From TrEMBL:
PROSITE patterns: TRANSALDOLASE_1. It comes from Belliella filtrata. It comes from the Bacteria. It holds the Pfam family TAL_FSA. This is Probable transaldolase. Keywords: Cytoplasm, Pentose shunt, Schiff base, Transferase. Its EC number is 2.2.1.2. Transaldolase is important for the balance of metabolites in the pentose-phosphate pathway. The active site is at residue 87. Gene3D superfamilies: Aldolase class I.
Length: 219
């Protein structure tokens, strides 16, 4: 299972990378705006800075919603660095753009996926990654994890090469359940990755070991 971090914050990306478990980064226009990044050249420079931290797989999202615009923008993004994966929304022209980029050997991440039907379309078009949004479905009383399970089943049944990238992951249980289901990738905030470290028995056990060691040493 791959771990991607879902942020455009360089310090958080560095912290996750330094932990040694990071496989990639996902961003979106809202996350870029949250970091105060705007304007084409600043956006490009920021993507480059992210690519310089991690080994591979940095999702950079197009803003255009028409085919020609997505192709133009996606090509520009892909030129920034070989690590870039072009992120395309699940809309009609987006499916066409995914097909185009697939034929050009440019990796894509199909985003804003909320149904199995959308997942089938993206896989048939040749998306490298598919991002179903768990938390946003949970927010409106649909079961986000159930969608991940359905898509994993469909992709395995037909041998689709597209990897299921579980997105909009809000807490550690989302991540753990995705692992049980067999999602290929999970993208989440830093606090979800570091949240996996926590267990009260680890903390109390360590405190006891250190105390016993100090006692034996006569300290
Ligand atoms: C995925 O690529 C999206 O950037 C992200 O996971 C959305 O998460 P949110 O619903 O917490 O904004």
């Amino acid at each position: 299972m791959k771990f991607f971090i879902d942020t455009a914050n360089l310090a958080e990306i560095k912290e996750a990378y330094d932990l040694g478990v990071l496989d990639g980064v996902t961003t979106n226009p809202s996350l870029m705006a949250k970091e105060g990044i705007s304007g084409d050249s600043n956006v490009r420079a920021h993507y480059k800075a992210i690519c310089d931290i991690v080994d591979d797989k940095v999702s950079a999202e197009v803003i255009s919603t028409d085919f020609d615009g997505m192709i133009r923008e996606g090509k520009e993004l892909a030129k920034i660095d070989d690590k870039i994966v072009v992120k395309i929304p699940m809309i009609k022209d987006g499916v066409k753009a995914i097909k185009y980029f697939h034929s050009e050997g440019i990796r894509t991440n199909c985003t804003l996926v909320f149904s199995s039907g959308q997942a089938i379309l993206a896989a048939k078009a040749g998306a490298t990654y598919l991002s179903p949004f768990i938390g946003r479905l949970d927010d409106i009383s649909y079961d986000g994890l159930e969608l991940i399970e359905q898509i994993v089943h469909i992709y395995h049944t037909y041998g689709f090469a597209t990897e299921v990238l579980a997105a909009s992951v809000r807490h550690t249980m989302h991540l753990i359940k995705c692992a049980e289901i067999g999602a290929d990738v999970v993208t989440c905030p830093l606090k979800v990755i570091t949240g996996l470290l926590k267990h009260p028995l680890t903390d109390s056990g360590l405190a006891q070991f250190l105390a016993d060691h100090a006692k034996a040493a006569g300290k």
